[in-house]
Amino acid sequence: MVQRALRQLSEKTSTSKFAILKFVCWKYNVGPRVRKINEQVCNALKKGITDGIFVRTSGRGVEGSFRLANQTTKIVKKNRAKIVKKTRAKMVKKQAVAKTNGSKHSKNKKTSAKA
């Protein structure tokens, strides 16, 4: 039920526990058993976090915002790819500069060793 709620309520960043509870109460027509459903949603979120199904994006414990784990990994992989490309380009530039600077210093060291 919680996974379905997170899929249906897929927002840009995450979905709060209150929004998940509200959706479950509306979708499954639980009536006056909201407290019992709240406990079940909390337990499902805790278990989902430990199993890696859900990811907590903000807050502590169950009082926070959540996302499905596969949605966040896609976003993280895209961001990592961009960061890796930028850092590789910077490393290549640094290595090129180091090689040119290193060759000048190595010639000076050789001449001082002969003298």
Give me some keywords for this one.
Histone_H1/H5_H15, DNA binding, WH-like_DNA-bd_sf, H15 domain-containing protein, alpha+beta, WH_DNA-bd_sf, 115 residues, three-stranded antiparallel β-sheet, Arc Repressor Mutant, subunit A
Explain the overall architecture.
The protein has 115 residues and is an alpha+beta fold. It has a domain at 1-68: Orthogonal Bundle (Arc Repressor Mutant, subunit A). The chain has four helices and three strands, in the order H-E-H-H-E-E-H. Strands 1-3-2 form a three-stranded antiparallel sheet. Helix 2 packs across helix 3 (34-51). It is rod-shaped, with a radius of gyration of 27 Å.
What is the gist of this entry?
Residues 84-115 are annotated as: Disordered. One of its GO terms (molecular function) is DNA binding. This protein is α+β, with helices and mostly antiparallel strands and 115 residues long.
Radius of gyration: 27 Å
- Amount of helix: over 70%
Tally the beta strands: 3
3D shape:
rod-shaped
Structural class: alpha+beta
**Biggest β-sheet description:** 3 strands, antiparallel
Supply the CATH class of one domain: Mainly Alpha
Mean pLDDT: 77
Q: Outline the low-pLDDT stretches.
A: none
The CATH topology label of one domain is Arc Repressor Mutant, subunit A
Strand content is 5-15%
Calculate the terminal CA-CA distance, rounded to whole Å: 81 Å
Topology pattern, helix = H, strand = E: HEHHEEH
Using the 3D structure, state the CATH architecture of one domain: Orthogonal Bundle
Strand order of the largest sheet: 1-3-2
